[in-house]
């Protein structure tokens, strides 16, 4: 298989002038590039001579291969380019005969990385051509030479990326060879290959994503039963918190608790727990579960239910272990397939898609490890609990044997294997569960995790000097300054930045803070625009050097933002810097300070900011006879109107009355409190309710001039006003929305409402529509299915208020076998019954600016 020729390739296309070129470079003859310019016949001839070759590109799966195949098929490459780039179409939509041309394409693209970024990491030249892609005239000879030179450069860089990722490339070939797949499969992703190799049959997915099955050999101590219960609560059958449109930072649904003295976070993405920002020394023991997820998939029956023969997966695992024991390299492709089997369970485009099995695997791993930690917590100090392992510290070597004895029973029962490492003189430097150094003080060997300390490769070589300095400090006790001042290669100090599509450009200049519309903004005067999107930046001590800023256009106005993690004064070097030494104007102190800051982050506990406002307000409520006294205390303690308003809207002061009454009274309190005099003009302007005006007038004296009311008894007036106001609520949606914002839950109840009135907390419509709803009458929460054809007519969204008109009982579905083609045979599960919504009224929807009740409910 490796006897095939390997060519790096890359297209350049100037669609406005119908000009294209293709450069191909043989991996073994990199000094002999072949460039084809606007010559379809030459491309056909080359392809016919090298049909069995492997063509390696960067983003070639999405772009270059379709230009290649399209030109072979006689399609104008300019048309293909514009459809791909300008209109975002898929290649197969444009080149209908793509499958006719068997191009062995291999894409070396790395996630979230452009080729120019990788070139920068490797220290190569990253300047871009001066010829714009939207040029609309004939190219000059000089421009053609420049385009070809850059084209050749990019192909050579693509081959360098291949060199750095050769293990992945060879594994892909090994998978093709070992499983005797057609070379047409070589263009597939590893996930696609894994699904094919595993024998997945593309078929219907059951609607049971959150019907969690607990691991069968779990023996959870009673004190941690609440963790299991958390997954079974209807409100937790969602990946996101209520009213969140998507899963983003701080919106994922999680259980935060303490296990074995370790703060832990549980959820649908794994278990993460650690004692942060500490250094632990002594006898350290690490226990990692070997192949945790594949083992759970086999032991618990959690593999994809779309596999034609699930037993094949177990046989593959056993075969891989045999080959690994024999140190046979053929175990590598098997390892890739086995490890891919979990990830593709939630890949909706994979034939293995089976999300409930993914959740089952993830939760089973968390619960099993929690149980093990619970059984060890009285014997040792638990330092970390992660997705597939536990780190502990013991007092004596005899305790190590006790830990292993307890673990042995757990291993036997769960059928999981623990891999132990014992550090008799160990040191764990732990920032958090994802950033740490574990050091053997006897021999200096260490293992590490996290961006600040990981061992960088040639294709993620960003600020390597900082990683080196931090590791030397913690592992070898070498001062930061010594590491940095003794390093002479410029590439060690590089910071690579990339401009994203959110910004219009980047400038090199001096930024100054200014006030614009009362807000702090950065302005850059006389900045030099930089045409490249990727730059290599270094700190400078030269007084005339400047900073680098991103340009953004907001509402037609230009604004600037300093590029993150770059110095105020810097110089840019986008040339080839391999072998270049450090200049005398490099600001070494900048890097010393940055490394020390990273060390500080490792050792300094983050200050936990707790909003004491709820506790303060509760204390005020406990010590106030009425709402007037409550507001008086808020006023004297600096609780602002804006801060208080959220809690009033959230109905936190219901002991005094309903939300509309309290909010209205709060406004009158703001106008009158502490005022012994109010002008007639102010009264007419601020108070529009005549009844309220009369109360104020009755509690004051009109001045002789008739322009003001003096001797105002504001306390009496406010108490009378409070008694006068009607006790009503604001729109219930606003109350519940604010409760979710403040507490991530709804507390509102109105017993006068029908028990059919529900507030939609979460919606999910992937396999079939499912919703989490809150009963506005009694506070009940349900995880509810909705009839698919009904939901299609009137889709629901988070925050809707609905009346459930009709429901029907339906049995769940279960798999009772497979037919000869591997399709699941589905039958009703009479032991499990679901209530399915078949008709509902849409009572309220938040339409953004127009938050209003729907006058005539939409019925579905």
Automatic annotation (TrEMBL):
Keyword Transferase: yes
GO molecular function: DNA-directed DNA polymerase activity; nucleic acid binding; nucleotide binding
Superkingdom: Bacteria
EC number: 2.7.7.7
Signal peptide: none
Entry keyword set: DNA-directed DNA polymerase, Nucleotidyltransferase, Transferase
SMART domains: POLBc
Transmembrane domains' residue ranges: none
InterPro entries referenced in this protein's UniProt entry, alphabetically: DNA-dir_DNA_pol_B, DNA/RNA_pol_sf, DNA_pol_palm_dom_sf, RNaseH_sf
Keyword Nucleotidyltransferase among UniProt keywords: yes
Protein family membership: Belongs to the DNA polymerase type-B family.
Official protein name in the record: DNA-directed DNA polymerase
């Amino acid at each position: 298989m490796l006897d095939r020729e390997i060519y790096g390739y890359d297209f350049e296309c100037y669609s406005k002038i119908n000009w294209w070129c293709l450069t191909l470079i043989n991996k073994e003859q990199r000094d002999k590039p072949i460039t084809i310019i606007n010559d379809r016949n030459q491309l056909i001839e080359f392809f016919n001579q090298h049909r069995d070759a492997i063509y390696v590109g960067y983003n070639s799966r999405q772009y270059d291969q379709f230009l290649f195949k399209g030109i072979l098929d006689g399609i104008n490459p300019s048309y293909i380019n514009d459809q791909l780039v300008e209109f975002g179409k898929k290649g197969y939509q444009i080149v209908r005969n793509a499958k006719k041309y068997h191009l062995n394409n291999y894409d070396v693209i790395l996630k979230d990385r452009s080729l120019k970024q990788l070139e920068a990491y490797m220290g190569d030249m990253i300047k871009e051509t001066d010829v714009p892609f939207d040029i609309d005239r004939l190219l000059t000879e000089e421009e053609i030479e420049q385009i070809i030179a850059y084209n050749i450069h990019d192909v050579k860089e693509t081959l360098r990326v291949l060199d750095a990722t050769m293990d992945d490339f060879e594994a892909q070939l090994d998978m093709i060879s070992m499983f005797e797949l057609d070379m047409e499969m070589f263009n597939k992703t590893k996930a696609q290959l894994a699904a094919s190799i595993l024998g997945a049959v593309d078929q219907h997915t059951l609607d049971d994503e959150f019907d969690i099955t607990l691991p069968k050999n779990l023996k959870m101590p009673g004190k941690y039963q609440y963790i299991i219960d958390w997954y079974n609560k209807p409100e937790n059958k969602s990946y996101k918190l209520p009213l969140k449109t998507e899963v983003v930072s701080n919106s994922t649904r999680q259980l935060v608790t303490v296990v074995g003295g370790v703060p832990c976070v549980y959820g649908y993405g794994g278990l993460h727990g650690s004692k942060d920002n500490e250094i632990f020394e002594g006898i350290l023991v690490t226990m990692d579960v070997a192949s945790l997820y594949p083992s759970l998939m086999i032991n618990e029956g959690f593999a994809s239910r779309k596999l034609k023969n699930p037993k094949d997966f177990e046989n593959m695992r056993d075969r891989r272990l045999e080959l690994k024991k024999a140190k046979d390299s053929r175990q590598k492709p098997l390892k890739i397939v086995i490890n891919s089997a979990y990830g593709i369970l939630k890949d909706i485009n994979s034939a293995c898609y089976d999300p409930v099995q993914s959740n089952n695997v993830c939760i089973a791993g968390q619960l099993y490890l929690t149980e093990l930690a619970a059984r060890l917590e009285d014997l040792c100090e638990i330092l970390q609990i992660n997705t597939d392992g536990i780190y502990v510290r013991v007092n004596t070597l005899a305790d190590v044997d006790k830990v292993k004895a307890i673990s042995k029973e757990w291993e036997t029962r769960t059928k999981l294997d623990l891999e132990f490492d014992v550090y008799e003189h160990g040191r764990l430097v732990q920032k958090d569960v994802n950033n740490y150094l574990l050091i053997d003080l006897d021999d200096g060997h260490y293992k590490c995790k996290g961006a600040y300390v990981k061992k960088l490769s040639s294709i993620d070589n960003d600020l390597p000097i900082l990683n080196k300095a931090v590791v030397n400090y913690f592992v070898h006790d070498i001062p930061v300054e010594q590491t940095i001042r003794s390093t002479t290669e410029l590439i060690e100090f590089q910071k690579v930045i990339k401009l994203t599509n959110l910004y219009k450009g980047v400038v090199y200049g001096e930024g100054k803070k200014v006030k614009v519309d009362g807000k702090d903004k950065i302005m850059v005067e006389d900045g030099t625009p930089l045409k490249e999107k990727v730059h290599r930046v270094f700190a400078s001590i030269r007084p005339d050097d400047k900073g680098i800023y991103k340009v953004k256009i907001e509402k037609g106005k230009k604004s600037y933002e300093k590029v993150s993690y770059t110095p105020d004064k810097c110089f840019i070097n986008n040339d080839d810097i391999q072998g270049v030494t450090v200049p005398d104007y490099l600001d070494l102190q900048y890097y010393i300070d940055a490394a020390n800051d990273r060390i500080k982050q490792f050792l300094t506990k983050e200050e936990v900011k707790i909003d004491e406002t709820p506790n303060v307000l509760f204390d005020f409520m406990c010590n106030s006879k009425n709402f007037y006294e409550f507001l008086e205390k808020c006023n004297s303690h600096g609780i602002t109107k804006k801060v208080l308003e959220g809690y009033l809207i959230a109905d936190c002061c219901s002991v005094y009355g309903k939300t509309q009454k309290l909010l209205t009274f709060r406004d009158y309190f703001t106008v009158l409190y502490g005022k012994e005099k109010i002008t007639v003009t102010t009264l007419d302007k601020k108070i529009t309710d005549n009844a309220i005006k009369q109360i104020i007038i009755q509690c004051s004296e009109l001045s002789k001039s008739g322009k003001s009311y003096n001797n105002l008894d504001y306390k009496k007036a406010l108490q009378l006003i409070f008694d006068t106001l009607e006790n009503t609520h604001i729109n219930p949606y606003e109350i519940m929305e604010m409760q979710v914002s403040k507490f991530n839950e709804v507390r509102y109840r109105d017993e006068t409402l029908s028990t059919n009135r529900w507030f939609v907390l979460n919606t999910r419509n992937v396999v079939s529509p499912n919703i989490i709803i809150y009963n506005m009458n009694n506070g009940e929460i349900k995880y509810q299915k909705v009839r698919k054809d009904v939901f299609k007519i009137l889709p629901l969204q988070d925050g809707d208020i609905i009346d459930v008109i009709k429901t029907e009982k339906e049995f769940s579905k279960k798999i009772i076998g497979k037919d000869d083609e591997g399709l699941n045979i589905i039958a009703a599960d009479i032991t499990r019954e679901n209530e399915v919504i078949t008709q509902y009224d849409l009572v309220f929807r938040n339409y953004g600016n127009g938050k209003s009740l729907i006058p005539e409910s939409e019925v579905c």
